[in-house]
Design brief:
Elements (H helix, E strand, L loop, with lengths): L9 E5 L4 H10 L3 E5 L10 H8 L7 E6 L4 H10 L4 E4 L5 H11 L3 E7 L10 H7 L5 E6 L24 E3 L8 H8 L6 E5 L4 E3 L5 E6 L1 H21 L1
Parallel strand pairs: 1-2, 1-8, 2-3, 3-4, 4-5, 5-6, 6-7, 7-8
Antiparallel strand pairs: 9-10
């Protein structure tokens, strides 16, 4: 059941492609770094490149490999290249598929749940989903968009159940301006809450939007500061 104990929100920054961004994220104090192995993503890296970047991580910062409909063999092989990495499944992977990868690799996994925006999706039940993927270390909540791998869109957080017996990771369209609201709303609804950000800390593109896969150190630090401020506010309430 959800905990009333004050917690430190864990932070993962996903979609890193450069050494400089790994260093910036580590310097800001994040807990995990995500590498996208989905070839169709503009933030994609190969398993070999993910391994190179992961070697820059100090102890206690966890690498995470984002997989989309990889075969069990390919996912296990990628995990073998990155010591200590977790798998994050963002495709159509079944519970059995996820467990096969976890057992063969000896690694834990995170399962993404793609949440429809607007009216409650009658075909999706997060509580049932959590039961199906009860072996997952956490469920990552992201907005349902065309394709896979996350689209940087915010979904309606208030439509989530009031109690979810799982560790949750909030994702989708987060930035330093809205992450505090997400933490305040969702933390009471789950065991523990973590945060996953990608486009919200990317460098601005000259013509608008962001440079996908290129992070902005200032935005990373602002985002981490916003998360810590939200933690401080919630701790004060306790």
């Amino acid at each position: 059941m959800p905990s009333s104990t004050p917690q430190r929100t864990r932070i993962k920054i996903c979609g890193l492609t450069r050494e400089a961004d790994v260093y910036a994220a580590v310097a800001a104090g994040v807990d995990a770094i995500g590498f996208v192995l989905y070839a169709a993503s503009p933030r994609a890296v190969t398993p070999a490149r993910a391994a190179e970047l992961a070697r820059l991580l100090p102890p206690f910062v966890t690498p995470v490999l984002l997989c989309v409909n990889h075969s069990v063999a390919d996912a296990v092989a990628a995990l073998a290249m990155v010591p200590g990495a977790l798998a994050q499944f963002h495709g159509d992977e079944t519970p059995t598929h996820c467990l096969d990868v976890a057992r063969q690799s000896g690694r834990s996994f995170i399962r993404a749940a793609r949440i429809e925006d607007g009216p409650k999706d009658a075909d999706f039940d997060l509580l049932e989903y959590a039961q199906h993927y009860s072996e997952a270390q956490a469920l990552l909540l992201d907005a349902h968009v065309a394709g896979y791998g996350g689209g940087g869109k915010v979904f309606n957080w208030s439509q989530l159940p009031p109690n979810v017996d799982a560790h949750l990771v909030l994702s989708g369209g987060l930035d330093s301006a809205n992450v505090g609201d997400g933490i305040a709303l969702l933390r009471p609804r789950c065991r523990t809450l973590a945060i996953d950000v990608s486009s919200g800390v990317e460098a601005d593109a000259p013509g608008g939007g962001t440079l996908k896969g290129i992070k902005d150190p200032a935005k990373i630090h602002q985002f981490v500061a916003a998360v810590r401020a939200a933690d401080h506010r919630l701790a004060g309430k306790h």
